Amino acid sequence: MKNEIRYTAAKELRVQTAPDGTRTISGMIPYNSRSVDMGFFEVIAPGAFAGALAPGADVLCLRDHDQKLLMGRSTSGTLVLVDSPAGLTFRCVLPKTQSAMELAESIDRQDLTGVSFGFTTNADVWSSDESGNVLRTLVSVNLEEISPCSFPAYTASSVSIRSCPVELRAKLKLAKRTNADGCDCDCPECLDDDCENCSNDNCDDPNCEDCPNQDSEDGSDDDSEDRARYMRLQLALRSH
Predict the structure, then answer these.
(1) In which domain, by residue range, is 50 found?
(2) Which member of 14, 121, 211, 223 lies 3.0 to 4.6 Å from 198 by CB, making a disulfide possible if both were Cys?
(3) d(CA 123, CA 69)
(4) What is the largest distance, in Å, between two alpha-carbon atoms of the chain?
(5) How many other CB atoms are there within 10 angstroms of residue 17's CB atom?
């Protein structure tokens, strides 16, 4: 399962201050709200976060997905999650740290108005609407963390599309991107980091190392060293 991140303009994201100075942030991740266009559209079905409410579930509240900026945790009771037909409500009692004070101030000033949440998918349903747009419905997910964020994160590139029916994959308008193996082939399998099952008969990407369409006639891979050097070069370029 792939870890995915989504951003939403959280409803009612606000800060409350108790008489003792303790500050609490709260908001809601809405259900049945269509996402931005990520090459497909996505909605969260009511109850999709049910696992996060189960005993022992460990969900973090972070700032910008940074584990060093831990704001609260469900197992300690500092992060409380409540499900409703409208969405998943969260409430986090902030620690008395400088980073938490800065987060509260940013929310209070409305400089920060949305949250991202990290998850892995248990069950999803792919369909198309009356306009032909591909729609993914998240039915059940493992919620790992909630993060008030400065910048939106719409990571279509991290989506696992193996559950998407073959007849709908051709409609996916995923932007070409480099996958986890450094491959830029835009077939559905390579987009899903599954180069071994590359379906592009004309694939010539030197980083698609497991591509069956690039095997030599005798079954050997004569260009493996060249491809490895190319991948190292591309990774070095991207690191600068």
Answers:
(1) 4-167
(2) 211
(3) 30
(4) 76
(5) 12
- Residue-wise pLDDT for 98-122, tens only, equals 999 999 999 999 898 889 999 999 9
Positive or negative, the CA dihedral 66, 68, 72, 77 is: positive
Whole-number Å distance between alpha carbons of 230 and 215: 17
Q: How far is CA 219 from CA 194, 222, 223, 227, in A?
A: 20, 9, 12, 16
* 12 vs 1: CA distance, rounded Å: 31
122 and 208 co-located in one domain: no
> What pLDDT, on a 0 to 100 scale, did the predictor assign at position 89?
95
pLDDT of 217 reads 46
Cβ contacts of 109 within 8 Å, gap of 6 or more: none
157 — phi, psi (to 5°)?
Answer: -70, -20
- Copy the structure tokens of residue 36: 């931005």
Global pTM value: 0.73
User: How long is the chain?
Assistant: 240
State in Å, rounded, how far the first CA of the chain is from the last one.
Answer: 30
Contact call for residues 99 and 69 (beta carbons, < 8 A): yes
In a domain, 122, yes or no: yes
Domain count, the chain: 2
